[in-house]
Structure prediction request, 296 residues.
Amino acid sequence: MDSQTKRNYIKAGKISAEVLEYGKSLIKHGNSLLETTELIEKKIFELGGKPAFPVQISCNDIAAHFCAEEEDKTVFEEQVISLDLGVHVDGAIGDNAYTIDLSGKYNDLVKAAQKALEESLKIVNVGTELREIGKVINDTIKSYGYTPVRNLSGHGLDLYNIHTNPTIPNIDNGDKTILKKGMAFAVEPFATTGSGVVHESGLATVFMLEHKKPARSPITREILKEIETYEGLPFAKRWLTRKFGAKANFALRELTQLGMIHQFPPLVEVNKGIVTQAEHSILIDDEGEVIVLTKM
Prediction:
């Protein structure tokens, strides 16, 4: 990894951490989920970064991939709210998350995910096996009386690629792959009152361009040009409808039919269990130094 790329990862992580703290300050009773989302995205740009993916604010049994649309009327009341955001600087990504319990009923569930993250980071080093990280996460969450979400995981971070190898498990899955110098990745525990499995549920509002093909419609071609400015990273339907109106819906349908974009529907706990999340991004540089990019 060259020195400029390392500096970009460090900068992206610093911005991510600062924006996460800002976002946490906005999650209060009576505030709008949509307005909060947009203020957080605006802050990313103000601090010199770009969104690595749309800001996601997932409530209660939704674990991930919930992104507000323009007509969203949700107001923060008594929900358990996970804020997940990513920032990139020239493709180098910092990704982090935190959960806030506005109900006052699930403080220990929030602590379970947060403590699992803290404990797992203590063993992150060159040579650590992925299964060892998963074991620490699993054991910590279970010590609080809850269940890790086993079909969600941490993930590698590459330039303009938010999900790549290695996969960082939240249980001991037996993976003896080791951490190496030059790796960037996110550790991302999820804890739940449910069974520990999520599934796709509801309509996707987050998409990603996967394969570029010719499109017949002038409307679709126009919107495809906009999508290409996201540089292969996930984007929000709201970003397009805000700029292009109803034309965006037409284009997204055609792009989906052509197999050009990947959809990310919300991920919901199968037994409607409450879900909490915690996340930091880590870089192991070429000298073997472990840098927690998103730690304030």
About this structure: The chain has a mean pLDDT of 97. The helical segments are 3-26, 33-46, 107-121, 130-143, 218-228, 237-244, 247-257. The longest strand covers residues 50-59.
